[in-house]
Amino acid sequence: MQNPVPEEIRLRPDRAVLALVYGGQTRELPAEYLRVYSPSAQVRGHAPGQEVLQTGKLGVLINDLEPVGHYALKIVFSDGHDSGLYDWDYLYKLAHGYDTMWRDYLARLQVAGASRTPSAADAPAPKKKGGHGCGGGGCGGH
Predict the structure, then answer these.
(1) Which of 7, 15, 32, 96 is such that its CA lies 20 to 30 A from the CA of 135?
(2) What are phi and psi of 127, to 5 degrees?
(3) DSSP character at residue 15
(4) Where are the domains of the chain?
(5) From CA 121, how far away is CA 86, in angstroms rounded?
(6) What digits encode the pLDDT tens for the residues 20-43?
């Protein structure tokens, strides 16, 4: 069975939280969580075991949301990351697995002796101008 498409997608005005509505229930996903679980090869790696632990992403925001056909969102983050396509199945997994996945991420940070707090090496890339996506308030229902 295919996971449902969100009924509504809203970006909070502070750009720190993406709200997805499934079955009338709103699931709020912090930008940091979406960033550290980006589906891009830069984060996931190109094969199992090549995942790259994302550190220093506390305070990252969502600069833009761009619909990709009828199957995904491209999320542009304030640190310049924009290469992951969040398809509906993956967004559903992130929304419904938030508690477990966030605890797992925090545990991996602790084991690595790493931090959520940005360092000078984590400074944001220059912001891109433009963007014609749906980051101004939401992509609407699908």
Answers:
(1) 96
(2) -75, 140
(3) S
(4) 8-122
(5) 26
(6) 999 999 999 999 999 999 999 999
Q: Are 96 and 142 in contact (CB under 8 A)?
A: no
- CA end-to-end span of the chain: 18
Tokens 């999320």: give the residue: 75
The DSSP code sequence of 16-61 is: SEEEEEETTEEEEEEHHHHHHT--SHHHH-SSTT------S-TT--
Whole-number pLDDT of residue 137: 47
| Separation CA 22–CA 39 (nearest Å) | 21
93: left (phi > 0), else alpha (psi -120 to 50), else beta?
A: alpha
Report how far apart, in Å, the C-alpha atoms of 114 and of each of 7, 40, 106, 138 are: 36, 21, 9, 33
Answer yes or no: are the C-beta atoms of 81 and 40 closer than 8 Å: yes
CATH code assigned to 8-122: 3.30.2020.30
